[in-house]
What we know:
Layout: H1 4-21, E1 38-45, H2 46-54, H3 64-75, E2 79-88, H4 101-116, E3 121-125, E4 127-136, E5 149-158, H5 160-173, E6 179-183, H6 190-199, E7 203-207, H7 222-225, E8 230-232, H8 237-242, E9 248-249, E10 256-257
Parallel strand pairs: 1-2, 1-6, 2-3, 6-7, 7-8
Antiparallel strand pairs: 4-5, 9-10
Helix pairs in contact: 5-6
Amino acid sequence: MLPFDNIVLLLSLCDALKDHLGRKNRRKAVFSLLALNLRTIAYIDGFNLYYSLLRHSGHKWLDVVKLVENILHAQDPTAQLLCVKFFTAPVLANFARHGQKSPEAQSAFWRALETRHQGKFEVIKGRHSSEEVNLPLVISGAKLDRARTAHVWTLNEKQTDVNLTLHAYKDAISGAVDQVVLVTNDSDFAPVVDAIRHDTSTRVGLILPLPAASGQHRRPSVSLTRHAHWARKHILDAELTAAQMPPVVPTRKKAILKPDHW
């Protein structure tokens, strides 16, 4: 049996938890203090992961599910990763460095992850929008001159941020998870992190896709991390290496090969 003082402490913790969950505008939830598996879904901002961490690396053939599991369990061994949702948009070959090989590589990457983690990995796709615009030229040592422009193409990713926000918020408010983990360093997601904390009792974690030595232009987003329960502010090269997929991923039909230029 527990000593009397420990029982009193446990009851006090229960009361505090009850008061916390009963606050106005919060969705009620029931937790067991003895439960050791926090049901967790991770939401990966694919654009931010690629451009902040993977673009110039040799780690593009990354098993994102394994990476998240390793970091998550190091942070909290009680967490149970239910699913990884990957938010991105299909590459447009006309704008890609490697032409048609780029969307083919992206598709192979998705299929490899879906094969290795059936039911535990999901791609939610947005789209790219392109248009011709006139933009001011950058002239060293001179002020902005809107009369001196260049006619250029712009490419913008659409819907992915909205999709990630809606999925994370809906999963949290439905009570389907105990914890949501966002993999991004984009401060645009600060409002949804704040909303999940305010409207639900769901824990919010962050994994920032930044190298350990980020430098001046790749600092952790303060507006994002201040709302989270915990934040892992970098990903080590050793962690990326340990989470690489094999060069050949077998399937029931044709094996999936790691792209040559990756």
